[in-house]
Specification:
Layout: H1 2-11, H2 16-21, H3 23-26, E1 40-45, E2 63-67, H4 78-93, H5 113-121
Antiparallel strand pairs: 1-2
Amino acid sequence: MRTRIETTTKLNRIPQDIGEQHKGFQEWDVVSSKRDHQTILQILIDGRDPNAVDIEGKPLPTLVYLAREKRPQYHHNFKAGAMNALIRVSSKINNNPIILNLDCNMYSNNSESIKHSLCVFMNEEKGDEIAYVQFSQNFDNLTKNEIYGSSY
């Protein structure tokens, strides 16, 4: 893995042999970058597939990778833009009423947090009035001027 990363960095592009192995890389061309690329949507696990099971034979949920389109001349709205893009393509995936968004830089110390958030949506009296549930966030190593810190 280290060699592949170093080679890619040195070449400033994905080597052809690696690019041919991964669908996500096949979507990129010589002008694409992490800040300038078309939408990439890949269903990694299709929950409708009867063979999509864990080691105990239980069905796995659909798992989707989405990199929304980004162009330097247009504002992409960060997480809200990603969620809007995911909602637009969800009918092609499974059209379920709930989307779980996991940030790669966040973690939960509570293994029941997904179940707790689903309970909010499934509330018989108010569940249909709720569109968004977000757990509180803690940020480490903040500076006094950190705009997302909310601690000063």
